[in-house]
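Morning!

This is the sequence you dropped in the shared folder:
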Amino acid sequence: MALHAVSPAAAASPPCALSSARIPQRPGCGCLSNRSSLLSLSTNFMNLHSGAVGFFSVPLVLQHSDKRAVLRHATIEEIEAEKSIIEDQAKEKMEKALETMQTNFNTVRTGRANPSMLDRIEVEYYGTPVNLKSIAQINTPDASSLLIQPFDKSCLKLIEKAIVAANIGVTPSNDGEVIRVTVPPLTSDRRKEMAKTVAKLSEEGKVAIRNIRRDAIKAYDKLEKEKKLSEDNKKDLSADLQKITDEYMKKVEALQKAKEQELSKV
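The structure's back. Tokens below.
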């Protein structure tokens, strides 16, 4: 197979036949300024077809200097490094999504008093919404009641109002010093409502995980546009990412099932 000198314009286009060799120059051709151009390529990504070398994986990058023009493609190690970064970031975000969902599950009350029931309650304190736990101490004197003691007694009525507005199935009692909350046993109807709430929170968790996957795919799209990944590379990496997503979807379903079983026992 004869090799001929390559012009810069031709070198910038996808090559159809490349090898790790120094290219001889035809007499009288000044396209490479009478210098040889070294095509430094890894043969790991080449496939021989009828005497021609065709690329089927990682794209090439053209580097220019006043002495030579070198075509270089991303190595397997570079692709694995990019993959590791994107997947690790996605996993970290998915873990946080699971933690948020579990925290929200804890606010769904069962028949037993638990301070976590009030985790999502916010109080308008001097015109600013703040978490109830940041302005009051919450204790459980017994299995069926909560005792809320605000650091500032002037906000007792605001706390009482916020608890009522939260519609968590309890009625606060304000005696001017503290707020007492009695947790009644779950009725059949209330249990069904709680089960619907759990299902809704579970779906929110799944949506969060899907959005994380979508953002990771966008990162792969960006690398493809930058010619750091080929279309085949992106498909393979996206398939691996889908496996991770499926694993976290199963974790969401497991948490949902555990909470539903907890509700069924009260």
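Headline: Strands lie at 46-49, 52-55, 60-64, 69-73, 122-125, 128-131, 136-142, 145-150, 171-174, 179-182.

More detail when I'm at my desk.
O.
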